[in-house]
Inverse folding.
């Protein structure tokens, strides 16, 4: 693999950067006035006698290169923005930035070197079209956002175990992300990058929520828990292997993945929110949810699948909408589950190639209710209506306004799209 340019936060010093002049006068105060902006090397040199500077250092202007020498800690933020002539920057003594490191709108920057940086609260790298590689030695960071860069790979952050937010978006040349993160406390989002990004998070044990879009492969070898939601939206990946995953606290959404043919969720026992598998045009078999026993929201599966199996499913709390256009799909198993009271919520719809079942359920259904409280779609009291209606659409679904199934689908779609 070739890296044209490097954004190096490791112990690699950019040779082209001239070292700061250490004979400059030491300022009596190493604190930065708010709203002060550095725009020349001399401005930066005025801090070279400070091992710690307090305040927010903002660098901008027409410099071709710049260096912050001597400073080991910034008790505040470091922002370099709109320096559209700058090709290189270095701050190789800097160990800690208590707040945010921002590199923004540096259109020709190809080398940034933070050779000692281990600790930073937030990293924001946005609009760096000439930077194509990142390497870091960071051991502590809360949030990392990398957007609109020319990065081809992100293999850095190797010493980082835990983070709150890891957000990589709109890096159109991105081909791979290889991460050793173990825990993501808030959100892992990889979205709108190059269509062919291959990502691997093989040390990840749990994440609060995960959203992936536009990735061509994803590997999560140790993921056992997603505390909130997990979404695979509009990816080009052929398979999703999450066989180590045991629990999803919120919703699971697998939507509009055109190349998807294989799923493995063989250890998943519960989904706390909605369960949505929709618009994956090549997904014909959904039979790996062998341990799944409870779904806390709605169950929505639409597509061309012939095979849909939930052998352990006991309870779906938010209704169900199952629609297959495959003629050999059968609703029998789901109809049985519904008749046993396993599907609560306010509506149950199941359509296969030939028939459809549509049942309006009472909102208070419990697993003991059986079908005794179910009413038909037309609103008259009675049992489930099963109509033979070759795609006539007679069994129109969701007559009930505010149906929880639609509510859940809409909520998930809007959260993720
Ligand atoms: C960026 O800097 C240029 C001058 O170098 C200035 O004209 C422009 O307004 C600045 N843009 C922003 C967004 O600050
Ligand atoms: C997520 O779940 C893991 C494993 O159950 C737990 O250790 C962790 O504290 C949870 N994280 C959040 C943010 O709730
Ligand atoms: C991710 O989790 C946080 C906290 O639980 C939540 O506020 C946020 O909406 C979630 N994002 C998505 C896309 O689900
Ligand atoms: C999926 O991605 C393609 C290509 O990036 C885009 O044209 C399309 O609108 C996306 N679809 C959805 C549902 O986001
Ligand atoms: C599935 O779970 C069982 C027991 O919790 C475990 O022994 C097994 O290794 C898991 N399978 C995978 C592929 O992680
Ligand atoms: C599936 O695609 C159809 C048509 O493209 C769209 O109307 C529907 O909202 C999609 N479903 C989901 C869950 O995204
Ligand atoms: C349904 O038909 C498709 C081909 O049309 C076939 O590949 C699939 O195995 C069938 N599924 C079942 C459950 O018979």
């Amino acid at each position: 693999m070739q890296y044209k340019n490097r954004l190096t936060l490791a112990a690699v010093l950019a040779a082209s950067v001239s070292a700061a002049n250490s004979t400059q006068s030491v300022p009596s105060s190493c604190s930065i006035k708010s709203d002060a902006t550095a725009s020349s090397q001399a401005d930066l040199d005025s801090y070279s006698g400070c091992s710690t500077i307090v305040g927010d250092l903002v660098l901008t202007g027409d410099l071709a290169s710049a260096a912050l020498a001597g400073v080991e800690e910034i008790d505040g933020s470091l922002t370099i923005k709109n320096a559209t002539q700058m090709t290189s920057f270095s701050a190789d003594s800097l160990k800690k930035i208590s707040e945010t490191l921002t590199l923004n709108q540096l259109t020709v920057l190809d080398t940034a070197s933070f050779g000692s940086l281990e600790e930073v609260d937030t990293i924001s790298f946005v609009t760096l079209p000439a930077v194509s590689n990142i390497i870091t030695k960071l051991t502590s960071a809360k949030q990392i956002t990398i957007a609109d860069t020319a990065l081809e790979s992100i293999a850095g952050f190797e010493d980082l175990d835990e983070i709150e937010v890891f957000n990589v978006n709109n890096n159109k040349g991105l081909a791979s992300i290889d991460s050793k993160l173990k825990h993501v406390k808030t959100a892992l989002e990889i979205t709108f990058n190059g269509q062919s990004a291959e990502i691997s998070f093989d040390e990840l044990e749990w994440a609060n929520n995960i959203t992936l879009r536009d990735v061509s492969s994803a590997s999560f070898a140790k993921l056992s828990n997603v505390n909130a939601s997990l979404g695979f939206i509009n990816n080009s990946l052929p398979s999703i292997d999450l066989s180590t995953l045991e629990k999803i606290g919120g919703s699971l959404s697998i939507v509009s993945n055109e190349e998807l043919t294989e799923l493995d969720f063989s250890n998943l026992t519960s989904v706390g929110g909605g369960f949505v598998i929709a618009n994956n045009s090549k997904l014909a078999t959904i039979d790996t949810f062998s341990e799944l026993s409870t779904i806390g929201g709605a169950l929505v599966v639409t597509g061309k699948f012939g095979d849909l199996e939930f052998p352990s499913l006991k309870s779906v709390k938010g209704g169900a909408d199952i629609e297959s256009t495959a003629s050999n799909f059968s609703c029998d198993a789901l109809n049985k589950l519904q008749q046993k009271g396993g599907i609560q919520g306010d509506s149950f719809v199941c359509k296969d190639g030939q028939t459809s079942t549509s049942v309006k359920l009472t909102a208070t259904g419990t697993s003991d209710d059986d079908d005794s409280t179910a009413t038909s779609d037309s609103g008259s009291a009675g049992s489930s209506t099963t109509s033979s209606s070759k795609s006539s659409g007679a069994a129109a679904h969701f007559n009930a306004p505010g149906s929880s199934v639609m509510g859940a689908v809409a909520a998930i779609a809007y959260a993720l799209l």
Observations:
- The CA atoms of residues 13 and 113 lie 6 Å apart.
- The pocket of 2-acetamido-2-deoxy-beta-D-glucopyranose (ligand 4) is lined by residues 234, 256 (CB under 6 Å).
